[in-house]
Each structure stands twice: as C-alpha cells, then as structure tokens.
Write a structure and sequence with these properties.
Blueprint (H helix, E strand, L loop, with lengths): L2 H13 L2 H8 L3 H15 L4 E3 L4 E3 L1 H28 L4 E7 L7 H12 L3 E7 L2 H9 L5 E5 L7 E16 L12 H5 L2 E4 L6 H11 L7 E5 L3 H9 L5 E4 L10 E5 L5 E9 L5 H22 L1
Parallel strand pairs: 3-4, 3-5, 7-8
Antiparallel strand pairs: 1-2, 5-11, 6-9, 6-10, 6-11
Length: 300
C-alpha cells in the first residue's frame, strides 16, 4: 500500500466524484480509477458503490476514511513542521549560559525571540563554561554563552561583550571605601573563586592579574556560580573578582570596586564550527543583536 493510494482514496471519498477528485489531484481520471481498484483489491473490500449517476462510500469505505483521515492530517502537519524547522521558523534550540548572562543578555534575547521568532522554543540551560564546551562537543547544546571560553577544535567563537573585572569586597572591609583596588591589595586577601574545571578561561584570566607580582593569590573557597560567590563574600569568607555587570545589581553585604589597570573579561557565543541549523542561526542573530544593544547602552 502506497501513501499515494491513500491520498487518492481520500480525494474521492471527499468529492464523491471521480472526475472532480482527479482534477483536485491534477491527474487524469483513468489512472485514479486504477489506483482505487488496486487499493480495494489489496484491502479485499469495496470502498465505493459506483453507478452511472453517483458514487457513494460503502460502510467499509466510510470506516476506512475515518481511520486514515487523522493519519494523513498528522503526516501533513509533520511535513509542514519539518519545512518550518528547515526554514528557521519553528523548532527547539538548546542554549547554555553562564550565570553572568542571566541578568540582562538572556532575558533580552528571550523577549526578542518571542517577538521575532515565536515558533522557535529556547531550551535554556544554566551551565558553567567547562560544562558547555563538553555539551557542545557531545551535541547536547546548540549554542553556548560562555565567559572567557578556552579555544576548542570543532567550535566557533565570537565575542558578545567585553567588560571590566571588578573586586568584590565585604561591605565592612577596610578597603571598601577606596576608589579602586590594586592587585597588591587583592593578593593580601583570601579569595573566593570558581573551580578551574568549571571556568578555566575565566580563572586563568584572573590569575593574569597577579602575574606581574610573581606569586599566586590565596584561594580559600571555590564556588560554582556568581550568586554563591557573592554570598560567601558577604559572609566574610573572602573577596572575589567578578564581571562589572554585577555592579548594577545590589547584593546586601558587598561592594564592588574597579581594579587598577582595568582588566577585562569576555562574554562569548559558541556554536559548532560546521553544523549550524537555520533555527540556531536565527537565535545567534537575536543574541548578537541584544549584546550590541547592551554594549551601546553601557558605553553611553
């Protein structure tokens, strides 16, 4: 049994006229008649009662019509869905993101996606940079939004935002009233940082601040996201170094200060180097434009 036979049967069942059904199908009537006869032979029943004046469905034909109608409708919808996905108008895109992207970039991108591409669903997954790299390589993510991402073969990287790093201190710290904090100040303090495995590029970037001093800082606690870091700083466990975007959000018990020399950090968008679907490309374009707006606002 062929799909074409079912479509031909449905046309005749709905038109109850072989001539009109043939015109609807853009074929001549004789081949249509042949296909219907073959279908009846295969099923072993008569689907239509035919006279010189009218065509009607038999009870078996009516039952067969009712059974295959939803199947053909589902198939038509499936075909249309695939076409929409291929065209970048419908589907699901898996997006990983670091916690520092969750305050402005991710919300702005989700809002813009709903306005511009309502048929594309974003599957948002908060993940550290190291986890995102692994997930992209294993095809568990389509897009990663990472902090100071380490270069990796097979992935494509583009910078979304560049911002300063700032020192995060307990609000009652002796240096909390200073205008800026130097690397010499920071190396005297216990620090709360991310695990290297989770944020390798970011931690390496922070270590570069202390490189001119010829020694490493004293790290007393590792934490897996920036909210935990802020909480530990507020509790007096130590100081930390975070992206300046956190300065725009109040967190009780902490203050942020510029670091001498104004070291910077990059928020990056990462995709597979070779396979980017139309859906993924649409999401990339929206995230990139949202980042441009944020960057322009920060510069103004």
């Amino acid at each position: 049994m062929e799909l074409r036979q079912l479509e031909y049967f449905m046309a005749v069942a709905e038109e109850l006229h072989f001539g009109r059904a043939a015109a609807r199908l853009h074929i001549s009537q004789p081949p249509l008649t042949v296909h219907i006869k073959r279908l009846e032979e295969e099923l072993g029943v008569s689907l239509f009662d035919r006279t010189s004046r009218r065509v009607s469905l038999t009870s078996e034909g009516a039952r067969f019509r009712d059974l295959i109608r939803p199947i053909l409708q589902d198939l038509e919808e499936a075909v249309e869905d695939i076409r929409e996905i291929k065209a970048g108008r419908r589907g699901r895109v898996r997006v990983g993101f670091v916690s520092s992207a969750s305050y402005e970039l991710v919300p702005a991108s989700v809002r813009d996606m709903r306005l511009q591409h309502p048929g594309i669903h974003l599957d948002l997954q908060p993940m550290a940079t190291g986890e995102q790299v692994e997930a992209l390589l294993e095809n568990r993510l389509d897009i990663g939004i990472m902090r100071d991402a380490p270069l990796q073969s097979g992935l494509q990287f583009s910078t979304l935002l560049t911002e300063q790093l700032v020192a995060v201190l307990p609000s009652n710290h002796a240096l909390a009233k200073e205008d800026e904090i130097s690397s010499e100040d920071l190396i005297q303090m216990p620090l709360v940082l991310f695990p290297f495995q989770s944020m390798p590029g970011y931690v390496t970037n922070i270590m570069e601040i202390f490189h001119p001093l010829g020694r490493s800082p004293r790290i007393v606690q590792r934490a897996v996201n920036q909210e935990n870091v802020m909480g530990l700083v507020a509790a007096g466990v130590g100081a930390s170094i975070l992206p300046a975007s956190f300065s725009s959000f109040s967190f009780p018990g902490v203050v942020t200060k510029p670091i001498t020399g104004r070291p910077t950090t990059r928020l990056e968008l990462v995709t597979d180097q070779h396979e980017v679907t139309a859906n993924t490309a649409a999401v990339v374009a929206v995230i990139t434009e949202a980042a441009r707006r944020i960057s322009r606002k920060a510069a103004s």
